[in-house]
Design a protein that fits this description.
heterodimer; A: 390 residues; alpha+beta; four-stranded mixed β-sheet; B: 468 residues; alpha/beta; 18 helices; 13% strand
Amino acid sequence: MLAPTGQRASGEWIDDTLRARAEEKGLLARTPLAGEFPRQRVELVRGADPTAEVNRLYRLRGWTDGLPIVPPTLGRIDEMLASCPLERHVSLGEVDPLGGVATVEKLAANAVMAGCEPEHFPVVLAAAQAILDPAFNLRGVQTTDENVAPLIVVNGPIAHRIGLNAEWGALGPGWPANAAIGRAVRLVMNNLGGGWPGAVSFAGLGQPGRWTLCLAERERDTPWPPLHVELGYRHDQSTVTVLRAETVINVTGGLDELASVIGSAASLFGILHSGKAGVILSPLTARRLAGQGLTRADVRRRLFEHGRLSADVWRRSWIHTAVREDEWPDWARAAARSGAIPAVREPDDLTLVVAGADLPIPQHAYCPSWGHPPCRVTREIEPEDSIGRR
Amino acid sequence: MLRASAVAERAGVPTASLVCEGFRGQAATTAAGLGLPSLPTALVPGHVDVQSPEELRRNVAAVTVDAVISNLTEAPPHTGKADVEPGPADVVFEGTFDEVNRFFYENDWSDGLPIVPPTAERVAEFLRFADRPGETELGVLLPDRRRATVWSVAVNGVMAGCRPEYMPILVALAEAMADPRYGVEHSGNTPGAETLIILNGPLIRELGFNYEQGALRDGIQANTTIGRFWRLYLRNVAGFLHHRTDKGTFGNTWRVVLAENEDVLRRIGWSTVAEDEGVSGGNAVTISRFTGGGVIASVFGNTPDRMLPYLADSVARKVGWELMFTVGMGAGSQRPLLVLSPILAETLAKGGIDKATLRQRLFELARIPDWQFERYVGEWTNLVPGRPTLIGLVKAGTIPAVFAASDEPDRLVPIVCRAEDLMVAVSGDPLRTNAYAFAHNGILGYPTTKPVRLPADWPRLLREARNR
């Protein structure tokens, strides 16, 4: 077994910090074996049922998300890395807040545990690079009392190749790639970053999206150029785009219903920090709108114009009393004077993704954002010119 | 460069260390080893050596400058306590021979060959042959800043396949490794040079070292396993690991111990390498890091005058970019080694040459044209930046006057600063007229000699070991 947990560049293991924090918070019952493991790269687990023993040990050491994991044996890790262009000891950075070094090998261990197949690993790598981008503010995401989680959107040919679902129930259970890739990112945050609930991560309620929140764009049935092409990539490139999602709110109906929810469910933190939000649009609605001659930009503008929060609601909100009016961004105060505030600073701050089943009564989703700085981080998957390729 | 920054940071002076893209990982691990894991670095995209001035300017302006400013103006994040490693006597694993080997290999504790499992019993047996207790500290080794102890010497000696009676030599090697003059911290540098251990003293015969045919080839337990020990100790205690702290572009396999033929040296009245390096009497190890070498086959002639031009030419030919250590970084630290087979040494001695005269004659003969010298360290490599001329360096007082005997670009200049910088050893097939020349890595592995200290009851222990 390869230790999936984080070691800092200075050599310390983050588990010692985690054990101390868990102890302080009276949470050691969840992880009674926190910090108790051989301080080395590889550990041997024997016994009549080693898989069960690994699961028991890892759960008690705090290395799982509560569900059983696939034991990260060296053989499985080697398979995960067999076609990886990066050398196994290359570091992609340190995972906030506790700073475990994200070597390719450690990422692979967590991907194995999450149930990833080797073909999923390029997406995990790119998603890890995206959440390590300072713009993503992983420290904030991990430690805030908000329930934010990374929303992982995949574009390009890889999605189809690895069976990443963009259609029926794309954000629901039943799709191995969607489930395992998102889970791998969460395990990386838990095991390399140390985002243990209650000890380091103070999300009040959490959300099921903290297990996995990963889907592909339904490019084939999208009337417009797909998200990554809009962001400047070619059709034949594959990308991962990571947003910070406070939650996923289902909206059934048309653009008006969607706008109404965007306005009423706008995140006040999002407004305060001029954050970016995500919108998942049903393919049928996308086609209808395109039929009316609307582009992606037009749809964003419509949602921006119509998805507004009443200035009265804003003024009565707890956060308005907590944060002085002159600390709110200019654009929000200016909009408030006209009676309603858009959910985001400008239309481009809405990230539009087309996905879901082709239902006659269309379903969409609104993913309000959280925090600072505004972020939408895109990384190419398996770029041709990446430095340090094997 | 990070080591200089670490010194400055410790003195309270903010630093920015410029790090080329391919070196970021090494910078991070080295900084951690220096005890300053958040030592600020500024990225230089790509590698400067292959960029045009315009490209470099663009890269520096776009990336490096901002990083330098933040390096110098922002406080580095707080760094925590060091990691606790298993205690010296902790049993880290129990299992079969195959399991132990797989486990050690996969934890990066082995070099890919099977190791002898370092059991408590085997380690205890090794410690009986040491003159000091196991917990004795022999120094602190970079990059991991781990303490070198007699205990960890024994553990790695067991693993390497050594016999317990090699212990005194292994301890002396660890002391030499920890000597700041040697510079173990450079062992991961890109030219990837490998250390040669030269052994002198009665132990050569007592422990059965090979010093005749095949002196530099594996196959004899003492020479081979002690060579392997060196590399394991670099790995497990100093902390040099592939793809991490080790940046050797190619590297090469560890070298077996070179034992001198002291029977011949005594007969012809020549000093040993250890004596040349200032350690006389008894046993001694000399370590020095060589970038490469090669055989000088069929030295023809029966007088020094006929033999020396070929030998000197071969010594000079082995040295190219390494001339930077003669006149640039660590000027005067280039220490090439010439190994003579006994028959060559004896023929030279018969011609009336002692060791000091030999080194002087080689110094005078192993020369290359001034223009060629300057090309190696300047035009072709930029290893001595600013393209200084040898004449300029002499005027600046960096190197001796011998490099500026005239201002003629075709004049011949030496490859080292002083005759004593040339090392000469005698070993190999006694009756074959071959020699071997090594080019040296300068201050990044400077020759360091340590006496070998034997335990008080060595004769009894040795008899016991022989009859085991």
